Amino acid sequence: MRTRRLEVSVTFDERRGYVGTATELPAPVVALSLSSLRRRIEVALLPDDVEVKLVLDALARRERDRRRQQTTMAQTR
User: Fold this and answer.
1) Arithmetic mean of pLDDT over the chain
2) pLDDT, tens digit, 9 for 90 and up, residues 12-44
3) How far does the chain reach from its first CA to its final CA, in angstroms?
4) 4-76 sits in which CATH class?
5) What DSSP string runs through 22-48?
6) Are 18 and 37 in contact (CB under 8 A)?
7) Residue 59 in contact with residue 11, Cβ under 8 Å?
8) How many Cα atoms sit within 13 Å of 4 on the Cβ side?
9) Per-domain residue ranges for the chain?
10) Would the pTM of this model clear 0.90, i.e. be above it?
11) Which helix (H) or strand (E) holds 59?
């Protein structure tokens, strides 16, 4: 069971990908996907047992939705 919850603010940068920031992180964490971002944050916080909650801003939500739509369209073909 996880001991505490960490909310990470996430934005999207076309040149770098998803960028997560939180006061508990020593530096912004960058990844090409949200799942990779979550894993990188968990690794950065080791050995703490933390539940990571990604809080997406408008840019990150738009990119997530665009990628989901592309996946759905590819599956229907």
Assistant:
1) 92
2) 999 999 999 999 999 999 999 999 999 999 999
3) 41
4) alpha beta
5) -TTSSS-EEESSHHHHHHHHHHHTTTS
6) yes
7) yes
8) 8
9) 4-76
10) no
11) helix 58-76
